[in-house]
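Example is below:
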Amino acid sequence: MPSIEQAQKIIFEILKDFEDDTLNILKNSPVALRIMRTTDKHIIFANPRYMDMFEVKDKDLQTLTPMRVYRHTKDFEVLSKRLEKQENIIDEVLAMKTLSDIPLQVMGSFHHLRYLDQDVVLAWFYDITAAHRAKEIAEEAAQSVIKSQKALSDEINEAANYIHSLLPKPLDDNLVKSSWKHIPSSALGGDAFGYHWIDDDHLAIFLIDVCGHGVGSAMLCISAINSIRSQSLVDTDFRSPASVLNGLNAAFPMEQQNLKFFTVWYGVYSPSTQTLKYASAGHPHAILIHNESSKKQTNIKKLATKGVAVGCFEDIDYEESKVILTKENKLYVFSDGVYEITDKNNNEMTLEDFTNLVKKQFNNTDELQSDLIYEEIKNLKKDDGPLDDDFSIVELIINHS
């Protein structure tokens, strides 16, 4: 039977072998590891991966303290206080650096234990600098995208406000009263309209609907509307609807407009002759409501002429027509977005459906009803979401004494 001294010697040899094996494991670990003595915060062991990560040389270990590889002294002090309270720390993201001051982003863990009969803290570190930088780059890119989107949104809103500024003010006199409703389906729609006196005896009324939505459609719409408002079309008589459509078709061929085209309705009202001349190019008919002898009788006319959308073909010769107005008249000019909905019975509303709706419910020649029409269309629509297309309608009441 061995003596107590022999038994202790055997135990010490076993512990030494165990510590040697542990040390070899730590040395060969691909994870950066170091052991810090808690009494003086001196590093008593660092494996090759740690020394490589933080650019530590063998001579540096003699005086190396962990604080030297932290970018911010305060961070190390806060961490030290936690360790002094015997807290074990797992996967903490740390702002560290090499001994040559190259910044590192590191995920570190700290665990208290006894090693070589001393209280120590075993720490292991993963270099996540590349991943952190990638995250920073992604966040910077995201912020850049947000800023770009905001700038674009601001520009789009500015363009939308400009389009809205082009829309006419309501008329309200003894001869003509007007109202309109314009709800773009997106921030920038492809619809615009207007009315203005060309001279003392000719009131132009028009609505343009450019295919598609967004910036391209809005820019074409603005150009077309401004060419009418400024009467800048070449060789065009703006008192003649057919002449205006011919001028628009010559000025805006789709080959020069990124293959975009537009439909248009254009009319000219003359108080002296009590007539309305009109022409259309691929556009829904306008609706004229008038009372000839009795307000109890609602009469409507569908005002449209044959002609393809503007910009599709060269050398189109558009036609115009004329209607004689009665004592009390109401005119609706609108885009197809006003009626192209799916109702609650899953039926697609047609132009004829909308015409009948107007005839039955919105035929009052004494009251402007465009707002009511919009509310009714929303009520008939299957769902509560926005309309699929721009909603644009112009309403004019024309009364002759």
User: Anything to note?
Assistant: Residues 4-127 form a domain with the Beta-Lactamase fold (CATH 3.30.450.20). The longest strand covers residues 103-115. Residues 129-166 form the longest helix (38 residues).
